[in-house]
Design a protein that fits this description.
This protein has 605 residues and is an alpha/beta fold. It has helices spanning 18-22, 58-77, 80-96, 98-109, 113-138, 172-183, 197-210, 224-230, 244-253, 279-291, 310-326, 329-333, 339-354, 403-411, 426-433, 470-473, 503-514, 535-557, 565-604, and strands at 2-6, 12-13, 36-40, 50-52, 141-142, 149-157, 160-164, 187-191, 237-241, 261-264, 269-273, 301-307, 358-361, 374-377, 394-400, 415-416, 418-422, 440-443, 458-459, 476-484. The strands form five sheets. The protein has a seven-stranded mixed sheet, sandwiched between helices.
């Protein structure tokens, strides 16, 4: 619950927009003293555990976004090693302050202290995995095997990212987004859920202390309407973790913006138990997977499909839960984080009962802030509880027949994050898992979030990735870089280019330079008589005709390259001089023949 009031007064007000608060005035306070703050009051309690000051407005968010965009260029220029060192300091701080941070998580979210400590440890382990993978993912990779050619894949940061987070796993979930986004060189506007504002503020404070500049990681304070303001900020990408309905609304709102969206949305994870497994072998796995942290986890089990022995499994599970409740359920399961979550669970359970479901245990809200472990049987897929995310300590049990029916029931859901299969037959597991439309499949274990593998949903469970190398690449843009390592002069074109000294090349170059025509080179004035009976003259005439045709062809196709007009004209002059010499030789030959004929009669006499 978020309660908002003015600084200096214990009076509580409903949460109001920036425009509304301008008109509010409480007698006894000057307007200079009026500030908009938030008291953080956990579900089921009456006293605030903290006060968050200066809730953001549209104007303040625009300023923070502009500052983050300005800082992004400098942040991306920081060496990857140095950014990794800063994130490593943050991990070290989590190790040093482990118990205190776990206590903050427990008090704010209602998670049992042991589970909160486990969350801190999981966060340390997960960020360590990101740092281990950072160099191989973010440094340029050379994919070429040729020494003369470099083929590199570079990763550039997206820019300035808006990040709106959930209250579920209030340390681990933000760390899974902030660590890879900052390591990749992005700046991030971070707004945690109003139900996790204390932990969110602590995360930002520690990162700032460890060396992340404040402009690189601005902290956004407020409720859902403040999250709406972020959507109007000048962002390069947006990441949202929360319920599917909110994610789909964000997608519609930003539909025309074309910025990359990562939407980590609702889940309704299923378990399929084959008949070759005894119920006693499985029941403890289900208790951990469904009821740890009161079922408030994206990896929690909500649907159970049992092959033939559903009644026996429901009895064994209920018997174990009774023993758990007789011990200390508050310490074992913890408190629900929001009162709205309790209302939603009760609404879904009541709807299922009206439609014929049977309550085996639980089913009614407990003392303030708590909801008991609940098991429902006789559940079918016409009920809302089979299709809507519960996010609480409730499971449904449904009997199925052959494997094909089990597969169909698991897939008959709008969400597709994870599923578990319990069987002793590995071949059966592999055959069934290949048919499931989910992002992760587990054999003989409840769903867990791996550090080195992908954790991504399908269908309405959203887009994006929270684990493995993909959690780093999702905050980057790929750039392909090709490098020629040979000397430039060694390059040879694949297009055939005539040699430099060929007649065709020289003729074409002249044409390309000055559009030379037949008259400009003087071929029309060639000294020959086309009507001559002399064979030599006819041969010479044919030669000049062929040259003229060659010129015309060069003009039509505009071939060739660069040559000086003077050089071209010199070639024509030499050709013409040669022709004159040939003609003079022909005349001399005629005279000789004529003289010979004149001398022949004298020889006969």
């Amino acid at each position: 619950m978020l309660r908002v009031g003015w600084r200096g007064t214990s009076r509580s007000l409903q949460y109001k927009t920036h425009e509304q608060r301008r008109r509010i005035h409480i007698p006894g306070f000057s307007r200079e003293e009026e500030r908009f703050d938030a008291d953080i009051i956990p579900t089921g309690q009456s006293n605030p555990i903290a006060q968050i000051k200066d809730i953001d407005t549209p104007e303040s968010i625009q300023r923070k976004a502009a500052s983050a965009k300005s800082a992004q260029r400098a942040w991306r220029e920081v060496e990857l090693h140095d950014r990794a060192t800063i994130i490593g300091r943050f991990v070290r701080e989590l190790e040093l302050r482990r118990d205190g941070i776990a206590n903050t998580i427990s008090v704010e979210s209602g998670k049992p202290l042991a589970a909160a400590i486990a969350e801190v440890d999981a966060t340390i382990k997960h960020i360590g995995s990101i740092l281990d993978q950072g160099a191989s993912v973010l440094y340029p990779n050379n994919l070429s095997k040729k020494p003369s050619l470099g083929i590199e894949r570079h990763r550039d940061p997206l820019g300035t990212i808006g990040f709106i987070s959930t209250y579920v796993n209030s340390l681990l979930t933000p760390a899974k987004i902030l660590a890879p986004a900052l390591l990749a060189g992005n700046t991030v506007l971070f707004k945690p859920s109003e139900h996790a504002a204390v932990m969110g503020q602590e995360i930002v404070r520690l990162l700032h202390e460890c060396g992340v500049p404040k402009q690189v990681l601005p902290y956004i304070v407020g409720g859902s309407e403040v999250g709406g303001y972020i959507l109007s900020a000048p962002l390069d990408s947006l990441t949202f973790v929360g319920r599917s309905a909110t994610g789909q609304a964000i997608k519609r709102r930003l539909g025309d913006s074309n910025i990359p969206l990562q939407l980590h949305l609702s889940a309704k994870n299923a378990v399929y138990i084959r008949e070759d497994v005894s119920v006693d072998e499985v029941v403890d796995h289900i208790i951990d997977g469904a009821f740890l942290n009161n079922g408030q986890d994206c990896a929690s089990i909500e649907r159970i499909y049992v092959q033939h022995q559903a009644d026996a499994f429901a009895y064994a599970l209920t018997k174990k839960l009774v023993r758990l409740l007789e011990a200390d359920p508050d310490q074992s399961l913890g408190r629900m984080t929001t009162s709205h979550g309790i209302d939603l669970i009760q609404n879904l359970v009541d709807d299922a009962v009206r439609r014929g479901a049977k309550i085996e245990i639980g089913g009614k809200r407990g003392h303030p802030g708590y909801y008991p472990p609940t098991v429902l049987t006789n559940v079918d897929h016409t009920m809302r509880i089979s299709s809507e995310e519960i996010l609480g300590p409730v499971v449904t049990i449904t009997k199925v027949g052959p494997d094909s029916e089990g597969v169909a029931m698991v897939n008959d859901c709008r969400y597709g994050l994870a599923a578990s299969i319990f069987t002793h037959d590995e071949n059966a597991f592999r055959e069934i898992s290949s048919q499931l439309n989910v992002g992760s499949v587990f054999w003989n274990m409840s769903p867990v979030v791996p550090d080195t593998l992908s954790w991504a949903g399908r269908k309405n469970s959203g887009t994006g990735n929270m684990s493995g190398p993909e959690c780093l690449t999702s905050f980057t843009k790929s750039k392909s870089v090709m490098i020629n390592k040979q000397k430039l002069e060694k390059f040879k074109s694949k297009i055939e280019i005539p040699p430099e000294n060929s007649d065709e090349s020289e003729l074409a170059r002249a044409l390309a330079l000055e559009d030379i025509n037949l008259n400009s080179v003087g071929l029309e004035d060639a000294p020959f008589d086309p009507l001559s009976d002399d064979a030599n003259e006819r041969e010479m005439h044919q030669y000049f005709e062929s040259v003229r045709d060659e010129f015309r062809e060069m003009q039509v196709y505009e071939m060739g390259r660069d040559i000086t007009v003077e050089r071209m004209r010199e070639r024509k002059r030499m050709a013409m001089e040669s022709s004159v010499q040939e003609m003079e030789w022909a005349d001399q030959r005629k005279r000789e023949l004529a003289q010979k004929k004149m001398n022949e009669p004298l020889a006969n006499e």
